Amino acid sequence: MKHLFFLLGVLQLLAAVAAMYKQWIPNTNFETASNWDKGRVPCASDTIHFEKNKVVSVFLESPHALTDMYLPLNGEFVLASGAGFAAFDGSWDPGCDSGETVRFADAEHHVWFDPRLWQAVSPGGELEPSGRIFSVDEERVPCHYDDVIFQPETSFRVNIDSSQQVINLRSISLMGQELSSPEAWDEYLRGPSAPLQFHGNGTLRVTGTGCPDKSGCACGNAPDGHRICAALLGASGRQCPVLVCRSPLQPLGHCCGVCGATINLDFTPDFDLQKFRDRLVQDLLSQPKYAGVQMAMSKVHKAQTFLGVIPRSSTPFIQIVLIDDGAGAQTGTTAEQLAADIMEDIAQYGDTLGISSSKMEVATGSTFNSQVGSHALNRITAGMVSGLLFGLLFLGGILFLYRKGKLRLPTLRMLQLWARAEEPVSPAPASDPGFDNPMFDVEPPSVDFEEKALQEKAPKDQQVFYINPLYDESYTET
After folding, report:
1. Confidence at residue 90, expressed as pLDDT on a 0 to 100 scale
2. Quick one: pLDDT band at residue 387, thresholds 50, 70, 90?
3. Do residues 92 and 71 touch, judged by C-beta distance below 8 A?
4. What's the pLDDT tens digit per position in 232-241?
């Protein structure tokens, strides 16, 4: 019997990780008490008030008597079988003596990119138990290859403002009807209900196709990551919780840091994400000693930059996030142990699984953030360093033998140029000798002569003359 329960637990975990169905939680039903400002459903003696300028779609499940009701300019009532409104006949209604004005709450603030408004469900729509598998915040909102479910017999209104022009989905189910083709979805959008249910600058598109890559597909919500974090942190005072670990880890796609461990995997075309996830769940995560550990695993893209500033491209890798329920100094230690077991499994079977390298980071309540490389990564790094050292030693040995004259190398033009460049260059003359002029054959005056001439400068009343070499020296001009 014990083994049977263990097997059922493993199967439950495998089913949970395979689920890609996300269900919208809020509704705008008439019978939902939280949709009214008084926190209760209006009774027969109340006055029902819908805001005049608010657009709304309201599902009515049962018949209701009313005294008075103010309707919006644009909206609809979706009536279940037998549902409707009737005028109050004045008879006594237990618990309805006040006759208050009850206002319908504003549904405009419900946004698509709020992880708190979605929940993971099975293909049949049953709520998945919160257990060992979780998702980073960006993946709690429907990803591009997920199936979206709006509960049957419910009305809703959701703001689909987005930084993406199109929000791709595999399928959308409304009022119990699954729309899994672009044609079926386009037809629904042309109907009267779609503009009342969806508003904002985004556009939903149904593709009808799942992820085509066995190594997994990125969620696709990164462009709206700021909206997701704003919705989460806005509900908690816009502050991430204070963690026990000294240097929290920051997984991609997650709004706040975590204590525990992360593993990043580089993969080859042979890698299969679903098979590897099932392997970890069945062989490691389901062990009793890891009962308090939760795991998230998905393909993510890390942006690459040139010089740390200029965006260049993005690199895909598999991210595994492990957290546990430890407290104080024990926070993250069980997750660290599981991460070490996963790294050991990768070191032994990584080549077979299609994993080329891996890196583990740990942050616990008793240690600083540390990094541990996988066996494959260490092997590659060691090989590169050894090759570089061998090359330098080889070149150094050749140069040593050549200098000692024990090794002769063929004469190369480059060596000649190098030797020629090393020859001393004759110094330039101290002064410019000028050039020869055949018209003059006279030695230029020396510096001493110029100084003497200045010292023996004649007075103004004496005659001054000069010698012109073109004429006879005996000819003078005063």
Report:
1. 78
2. low
3. no
4. 998 666 789 8
> Residue 310: enclosing H or E segment and its boundaries?
strand 310-324
Helix axes 333-353, 273-280, angle to 10 degrees: 140
Residue 408: pLDDT band by 50, 70, 90 thresholds? low
The closest alpha carbon to 193, from 48, 55, 29, 69, belongs to 55
In 214-359, which ranges are continuous DSSP H helix?
225-235, 273-280, 333-353
Query: SS3 sequence, 449-468?
Result: HHHHHHHCCCCCCCCCCCCC
Mean pLDDT of 192-212: 96
Non-local CB neighbours of 448 within 8 Å, separated by 6+ positions: none
Instruction: Tell me whether strands 204-206 and 293-306 are parallel, antiparallel or unpaired.
Output: unpaired
Name residue 147's amino acid: D
Instruction: Of 20-29, 80-89, 196-205, 365-374, give the lowest mean pLDDT range.
Output: 365-374
Highest mean pLDDT among 15-19, 64-68, 116-120, 469-473: 116-120
Cα 71 to Cα 4: distance, rounded to the nearest angstrom: 57
> Within 13 Å of residue 151, how many CA atoms lie on the same side as its CB?
18
pTM score, whole prediction: 0.73
Could you tell me if 41 and 66 are in contact, meaning their C-beta atoms sit under 8 angstroms apart?
A: no
Beta bridge mates, 60: 79
Single-letter amino acid, residue 380: I
Distance from the Cα of residue 437 to its chain's centroid: 80
Write down the residue that tokens 């006279």 correspond to: 442
Q: pLDDT of 119-141, one tens digit each?
A: 999 887 677 666 789 999 999 99
Q: pLDDT by residue (tens digit) across 23-50?
A: 999 999 999 999 999 999 999 999 999 9
The dihedral of CA 167, 171, 175, 177: what is its sign?
A: positive
In the predicted model, is pLDDT for residue 433 greater than 70? no
Alpha-carbon gap, residue 435 to 283, rounded angstroms: 95
**Rounded CA gap, 256 and 233, in Å?**
9
Which token pair is 381? 């790094």
Rounded Cα distance, 337 and 261, in Å: 9
- Letter string b/e over residues 53-63, b meaning 16 or more CB atoms within 10 A of that residue's CB: ebbbbbbbbee
Q: Which residues pair with 158 in a beta bridge?
A: 198
And the tokens for 314?
């993005």
Torsion angle, CA of 428/433/434/439, rounded to 10 degrees?
Answer: -160
Q: What angle do CA 120, 126, 127 make, to 5 degrees?
A: 45
Give per-residue burial for 381-408: e unless 16+ CB within 10 Å, then b.
eeeeeeeeeeeeeeeeeeeeeeeeeeee
